[in-house]
Amino acid sequence: MTAVIGLFLMLFSVTDGVVTHCDGRQNGAQCYGALGGSVSIQLMDDFTEIHRYYLYKNKTVVMLGGKDKKPDTMMNNRYSFIPSNGTFWINNLTKNDNDEYSLTTFDTNGTQTANHSLQLSVQAPVSSVSLVSECLSQGEMKVSCSSEGGDSPQYRWTLNGKSLTEAELLSGNKQTNIITLKQHVSGRLVCSVSNNASSASNETNICTCGFIYINSIINGRKISKWVFLENNTQCVEPTIVSPTETQSTVDWSMLRCSLMFLFSVVSFVGIGVYFTWKKIKSEKDEQSAERDRTQFLEDFSGNEQALYSNV
């Protein structure tokens, strides 16, 4: 019961820091802790039947106990030990906790039954990861990743949930803090920063910097490159539309206007032809009437002369 209460109090006191765990049961184990946080080191499975045990930091005893003796952490309130599960805790880690720790156990006859050591390394945790992106002259994007603190930080990049590939990277690699992405790359970019004691990440959405890829032939010269969309005056590629798309996207209003214009032209021509024909017919009728009048007058005049000559 005392061990459970001690464990509860110990956990309550470290909730504000980073907690790491290490299996120190094998000789030569490497353990890591976060600066200001806590580390739990499993030294053995169970100490309740061990007659005597001593834990050394370098050559200094930091904890001792036994089957008939309660564990003593040598007056250091940052240390805690739970015999029932064999875990040794160090809270509020400092750089001074970096060292080699060794465990020695003895039986009732005073004979040494076990002796193994481990190495503890305390690292400053990574935090506050920030991303800075910059569009380059040809549409590439340079992205920098950094974090506050963090000893020996390691970097990992993912795009849309997947690790970056060589087809997406122009320079750098997915383990460096500065990368350059190719022109066509876009999506959710995540930078994860970690060391052996902690990890943190940040993300950003990236676009193609407003560049497009042109592939055209101008005056017999082929142009294939990335250009800024708003400044693209070199090449405008035609949009190729399939026959089905052409049929489905016919501008019926234009066709209707064309037909109306054609009808108007035909109507005007028809009216013109009609009035021209009417004019010609009217002139012909007038000429014919004039001839008839002239012929009548000539005939009447001849008849009148013949009548007077007979008298």
Structure characterization notes:
- With 311 residues, the protein is of the alpha+beta class.
- It has helices at residues 2-13, 243-248, 252-310; strands at residues 19-23, 29-34, 38-42, 52-57, 60-66, 69-72, 79-82, 87-90, 99-106, 112-123, 127-135, 141-148, 154-159, 162-163, 169-171, 178-181, 187-194, 199-206, 211-218, 221-228.
- It has 3 domains: 16-123, Immunoglobulin-like, CATH 2.60.40; 127-209, Immunoglobulins (Immunoglobulin-like, Sandwich); 212-241, no CATH class.
- A 6-stranded mixed sheet has the order 2-10-9-4-5-6, with no helix packed on it. The chain has a 4-stranded mixed sheet with strand order 1-3-8-7, with helices on one face. A 4-stranded antiparallel sheet has the order 11-12-16-15, with no helix packed on it.
- A hairpin with a 2-residue loop joins strand 5 and strand 6.
- It is rod-shaped, with a radius of gyration of 50 Å.
- The protein starts with a helix and ends with a helix.
- The model is unreliable at 1-15 and 230-253 (pLDDT under 50).
SSE topology:
Layout: H1 2-13, E1 19-23, E2 29-34, E3 38-42, E4 52-57, E5 60-66, E6 69-72, E7 79-82, E8 87-90, E9 99-106, E10 112-123, E11 127-135, E12 141-148, E13 154-159, E14 162-163, E15 169-171, E16 178-181, E17 187-194, E18 199-206, E19 211-218, E20 221-228, H2 243-248, H3 252-310
Parallel strand pairs: 1-3, 2-10
Antiparallel strand pairs: 3-8, 4-5, 4-9, 5-6, 7-8, 9-10, 11-12, 12-16, 13-14, 13-17, 15-16, 17-18, 19-20
